[in-house]
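seq as requested:
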Amino acid sequence: MDDHLHQLSQRLGEQLLQRNWRIATAESCTGGGVAAAITAISGSSAWFEYGIVSYANAAKEKLLGVSSETLAREGAVSETVVIEMARGVLALSGADIAVAISGVAGPSGGSHEKPVGTVWFAWATVTGEIKTELKHFDGDRAEVQRLAVVWALECALDF
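struct tokens:
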């Protein structure tokens, strides 16, 4: 893990510990990268609940309770889906805060409406607060995934 990811994860852990909060992740295009960055920090078991990699739509439905109607209507890379993913992992885990990510890392899978590099994020708390954001990252698959992980951690720090 690079130094920047390590520092972000360390800072997030410190903030969560100060609040006595635990975090959970629901990831698609990042393939567990956020959870991996968090758990690379020694002692993260004190503030990391768990992560779910729900790459397939069936996993989003079965594990996180994402509506099949939402997936059919909006597609997996959408604001509504990441909101449902975040709420689902919060309900499942009992964590205090969650981050959810779904996007198109590439090099294939993009469309005119959702080109490669399109990534939706949601951060949600057990008290009902939700923040969403759409980002467009440049780069190859590994770079899109890395940038998405960095963004998820940076915004979790601000949230």
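The two ends are 23 Å apart (CA to CA).
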